[in-house]
Design goal:
alpha/beta, Rossmann fold, Hypothetical Protein, Haloacid Dehalogenase-like Hydrolase, Chain: A, domain 2, 2 domains, 5-stranded parallel beta sheet, 9 helices, globular
């Protein structure tokens, strides 16, 4: 019996308009009542995912920023924060400068950017088509010199957004090639997330499972994007939703229905016979 369900949010359990369907909520609450642990795992800052945690209302923790943080908002407990060192942040900024591209820098409670477009557009530049209005957000600060942010405490994620997919992937590859301390992955078609090399969704899920004395083979993981790959591979059962990127589908143990067709809920109802 699987004891822990780790799931990505955007594109996986959220529908294309950014809502958490009632069927997903019902299934997760039922499994929680059965003693199955539910763990949302997101590339977002954990605070920006809090709306969905509140909707689930089961007291579960959430992994944020691709595995850089683990927090339980119900208890106020922050289990870990895995920050990027200053030298690596500066080298990332150097690459952005060489590509003449702006970026975002995230701490645990603030995001900084040197682009007015990114400042004004916020997460809506990535979650295109979302209609849900969010209650929680983090402070966004527009800076003229992005290097001035490098001294901030608890920098946990950097982001590059550009609607030219080929350009975004070139930036991703340059970071992975030139900064061995960092790892850049595609989290959306127009976005790459950059974390510390040892930070990933998969590593964070396994760390949380260890706290619960749950083995890797007792975990189910669901995802849709490249930043979910580590989690899919770490779990005993890795499931890609039908709308997932090809790179994830090729490595998953199973492909289910799409996020808009409640693929995650369908799989869980079948596995747990609920």
């Amino acid at each position: 019996m699987y004891k822990l369900i780790a799931t990505d949010c955007d594109g996986t359990i959220l529908d294309s308009e950014g809502f958490l369907p009632e069927e997903i909520i019902r299934v997760f609450r039922k499994l929680n009542d059965m003693g199955i642990h539910i763990l949302p795992v997101t590339g977002r800052n954990d605070i920006i995912a809090r709306d969905y945690i509140d909707e689930l209302d089961i007291g579960c923790p959430v992994i944020g920023c691709n595995g850089a943080t683990l927090v339980n908002f119900s208890t106020g407990e922050r289990f870990f924060t895995r920050s990027i060192d200053k030298a690596s942040v500066i080298r990332f900024m150097d690459i952005c400068k060489s590509f003449d591209t702006p970026c975002k820098i995230f701490t645990t409670d603030t995001q900084y950017t040197n682009s007015r477009v990114l400042y004004e557009g916020g997460i809506n530049l990535i979650t295109v088509g979302y209609k849900k209005k969010m209650t929680y957000s983090i402070e966004t600060i527009l800076v003229e010199d992005i290097y001035s942010v490098a001294d901030k405490d608890n920098i946990i994620k950097c982001v590059v957004v550009n609607n030219d997919v080929d350009f975004v992937l070139r930036v991703r590859d340059a970071i992975n090639r030139e900064i061995p301390e960092l790892k850049a992955v595609q989290s959306n078609w127009n976005c790459i997330d950059i974390n510390r090399r040892d930070v990933s969704k998969g590593a964070a899920v396994l760390d949380y499972a260890k706290m619960l004395n749950i083995k890797a083979e007792e975990i189910i993981a669901f995802g849709d994007s490249e930043n979910d790959l580590s989690m899919i591979e770490a779990a005993g059962l890795g499931v890609a939703v039908g709308n997932a990127d090809d790179c994830l589908k090729k490595r998953a143990d199973m492909i289910c229905d799409t996020n808009d067709n409640l693929g995650v809920a369908k799989v869980l109802r079948e596995i747990y016979n609920i």
